[in-house]
Write a structure and sequence with these properties.
The chain is an alpha/beta fold. Helices cover about 40% and strands about 20% of the residues. It is globular and about 65 Å long. It binds nicotinamide-adenine-dinucleotide (NAD).
Length: about 350
């Protein structure tokens, strides 16, 4: 039996998690589902966004299904107690270093994309973002009085960009391995023309790529990648990049598909244990109204079945069921075009259940 930690969180988190749980149960697999509070909900109950019992459950589980965290009402809290810290804590304690964000444009939703339908029809990109290095975590960082540069004596702030060879090697292996199950093309995105960190990145990815002669590797500067994503997005198969460029490019790619409400994500450790969550946040503006699209979370269940639980057939059943409901015309408000009727979060979950059966 596999153990799954269900961490619903805040805002629309509990609503979308309820639908994903319905789907998980309907699959009738040998799974033990255990719930725990996280984010603002956990702060309200226990005074911390990631209480020890929640962390212990996540560590003991084979996989974590996560809803979303955050609400404006916690903005006054000191940074360490804010809901979003729960995600950073889980990433750190679970050793999650590879963030997989597919951007798939479903045939039926091409009209919801901000790009012309012919540019996005059939789009299927996998963005793999490294999660532990780069300018988000490098030391030193801080503020001080400048002693050189253009304005000596003025206040300045600084962050440090860094990557180590083993960090780049392991994320590169994730990318090349993923590409083998797809179109066998990897685009490594860097800024090697300006940054020493990304010259090392490019060198190491090239070396690792030599171990995968069946996969084509190309390198692209991040500014060009941002442009190509809107100019000719279907040229990409697997994109691998660092924490900051991945943060930005994966949000850009998500909009090509029509709605952030459709996009799942996975964050994996070295043994394919993972945390699975929709790419969107807690959407406090629509929380409690039954407006949230649960499909990103339901598709996160499919990723969990495939990557952490070794159940690719069940994953495929879930993905096929989502395709079916879209083909049948079921739409939540975020993916409904003008004139189309939108259904509630739970009606969408029920439609997926019906399609599964
Ligand atoms: P958001 O993703 O929550 O919402 C952005 C917009 O998309 C909103 O208009 C929202 O209504 C809509 N939206 C999001 N998910 C949707 C869904 N499933 N169905 C339909 N519409 C959906 O981003 P935000 O508004 O910038 O942030 C809100 C809160 O979420 C903040 O506290 C932020 O810190 C947090 N956040 C959490 C995560 C996470 O838990 N991993 C990620 C991003 C943001």
């Amino acid at each position: 039996m596999k153990r799954i930690a269900l961490l619903a969180g805040d805002g629309i988190g509990p609503e979308i998690m309820a639908e994903a749980t319905k789907v998980l149960r309907a699959l009738d697999l040998d799974l033990q589902l255990e719930e725990a509070p996280v984010g603002g909900a956990a702060y309200d109950l226990h005074g911390h966004p990631l209480p020890p019992a929640t962390l212990a459950l996540a560590q003991a589980a084979d996989a974590v299904l996560f809803g979303a965290v955050g609400d404006w009402k916690y903005d006054q809290l000191e940074r360490a107690l804010r809901p979003e810290q729960a995600i950073l804590g889980l990433r750190k304690h679970l050793g999650l270093f590879a963030n997989l964000r597919p951007a798939i444009c479903y045939e039926q939703l091409t009209a919801a994309s901000s790009l012309k339908p012919e540019l996005v029809a059939g789009l299927d990109i996998l963005i793999i973002r490294e999660l532990t290095g780069d300018i988000y975590f490098g030391q030193p960082r801080g503020r001080r009085t400048a002693t050189d540069g253009h304005f000596p004596g003025a206040e300045e702030a600084f962050d440090t960009m860094r990557y180590s060879r083993p960090e780049i090697e392991r994320i590169a292996h994730v990318a090349f391995t993923a590409a083998r199950g797809r179109q066998r093309r990897v685009t490594s995105v860097d800024k090697a023309n300006v940054l020493e960190t990304f010259q090392l990145w490019k060198d190491v990815v090239t070396e690792v790529g030599a171990q995968y002669p069946d996969v084509t590797l190309d390198h692209m500067y991040v500014d060009n990648a941002a442009m190509q994503l809107v100019k000719e997005p279907k040229r990409f198969d697997v994109v691998v990049t660092g924490t900051m460029f991945g943060d930005i490019l994966s949000d850009e790619a998500s909009m090509l598909t029509g709605s952030i409400g459709m996009l799942p994500s996975a964050s994996l450790d070295a043994n394919n244990k993972g945390l699975y969550e929709p790419s969107h946040g807690s959407a406090p503006d629509i929380a409690g109204k039954g407006l949230a699209n649960p499909l990103a979370t339901i598709l996160s269940v499919a990723m969990m079945l495939r990557h952490s639980l070794g159940m690719p057939d069940a994953a495929k059943r879930v993905e096929d069921a989502v395709q079916t409901v879209l083909a049948q015309g079921w739409r939540t408000a975020d993916i409904a075009l003008p004139g189309e009727t939108a259904v509630s979060t739970s009606a969408m979950g029920d439609a997926v259940l019906a399609a599964l059966r």
